Amino acid sequence: MSITEHRIRGDHRGQLVAIEGLQDIPFEVKRVFYIYGTQPDVPRGQHSHHQTRQYLIAVNGSCKVTLDDGKQKVTYDLNKPNIGLLQDALIWGAMHDFTVDCVLLVMASEHYDEADYIRDYDDFLKVVGA
Amino acid sequence: MSITEHRIRGDHRGQLVAIEGLQDIPFEVKRVFYIYGTQPDVPRGQHSHHQTRQYLIAVNGSCKVTLDDGKQKVTYDLNKPNIGLLQDALIWGAMHDFTVDCVLLVMASEHYDEADYIRDYDDFLKVVGA
């Protein structure tokens, strides 16, 4: 779990941020998804993965992400479009406090597989031995 | 060069669009970049690639993309966050008419390599034999 501030390649035309798989983030990107149109009072996520690692960036607007290893919870502010947050496997994640204009970009290390999800918090605590 | 309208996985929490590499798009994603803060009157892109294929989505706001194979130019409106545009290798691309809030997400089939860029339009026409 760590925050990285990525270089902004800005010039008179505007800004550009680039994320190279296996270079800027520690995995190859198998899946990209993005969340938008989220209500400010509605959290998302609230699950963990057995294998999938995720990299989260609020490319527009902002949100907060709380990561939980079963022992400790840490909340991160994704409030700049060049701030990325790594969510490792076996970390419980919740996204919340979305601004109405938030677009949360997620790069994932695995293709979608429902069997990789841990959706029950008590199950999660058992899996991580917490 | 083709437009795809991706499924929006919407519910009471908001919207989610997922792009699986090699499934929803015809390549593995080696690099992800996004362009934002672009002035409405400033075009971007205006180059081609020898090898790199790109998949473009305006995940916030909108812009237009003109693709040019050396014989024909077609302009696409990226005006919904679930519309994706495939830009093949050896296609000249220009992005323009950005709204101030536009975030243009690009998934690329290759890592960054300056040698893969064709930045001169006359060189491009020679390479494609147009």
UniProtKB/TrEMBL annotation, chains A, B:
Pfam families xref list: FdtA (PF05523)
| Residues that span the membrane, as ranges | none
Mind telling me which CDD domains this protein's record contains? cupin_QdtA-like
Q: Where is the Sugar 3,4-ketoisomerase QdtA cupin domain?
A: 7-128
Against InterPro entries, the record matches this protein to: QdtA_cupin_dom, RmlC-like_jellyroll, RmlC_Cupin_sf
**Would you tell me the protein name for this molecule?**
WxcM-like domain-containing protein
Q: Provide the organism lineage as a comma list.
A: Bacteria, Pseudomonadati, Pseudomonadota, Gammaproteobacteria, Oceanospirillales
